[in-house]
Fold:
Amino acid sequence: MEKIDVIVKIIPLIITIIIGYFLYKKRIMSDGVIEFLKKIVVIITLPASLLLAFIQIEFQTVYILVIIVIFITCLLLLFIGKLIARVFHIKSPYFPYLLTGFEVGMIGFALFGGIYGTEAISSLGIIDIGHELFIFMVLVPSIMLLTAKDTNKSKAIQSITLASKTPVVWAIVIGVSLSIAGIYQLEGTVVYSTIIDSLRFISTPTAFIICLVIGRGLKFSLKGMKLEIATALLKIILALLFALLLRNFLLIPLELSSLETALYSMFVLPAPFVITVFMDRSNKEEVNYVSNTLSIGTIIGVVLFLGISLL
Structure:
């Protein structure tokens, strides 16, 4: 894709983010509206985008190795976070979790599809599968253990239950399954064309809605946020170092350079927003730390994401 074509695709995204910021500041778009828009994306438009992307590709067995390595990479980032917290005596129990994982669902897929087209989302989806396994098998149960909620269910079962109720996860599972089954071979038939056109129509608003949501969350005052800024910057540095290693020792040897842009695009994203869902909400100081770090990480991530598209 030519740089001028990329710039043309980026401009509407930036304009929409700015619109979202001013709509919220002028109190035209309330928190209730934002939550409704998020649900529309997570439940309807994003799953449609993922299905559309996966059913049009031929799944390769080599992708399994990519899935495993990405899972291990997320584990290593979490381990490094715990090590740094111990060495530098960082008290927040959520610090290690802010150094691993990426907000692919609410930010990554929308921006990637908006810039490179819906058909390109599958490459980001392949990189994301191992990451999603990490989120629901490791990150969510671990944060649940921190909150120590009273429940008769084990943390693992709660996490699996959450995953089973997440439309994005189901979209990935169904999409990959249909890809492996070879549904793309039906291309040209009426049924296949109807499915593709329907999914494309439903998924179209995803990038627009997410950019509005991103604009709403922008914060330009960084006063008194030294730890938050340091955490967000450290996350980016570590993630990019691992992305470079994965490019040189995984994608290139496996001749999967086509996934390189998706790899870097995912690794500049902020930590997953699901952390705020399962953390202890009664501790306002920790809530502010996590929320502010994610906000700063979002700004940095979006800027780098757009920058990568111009390289």
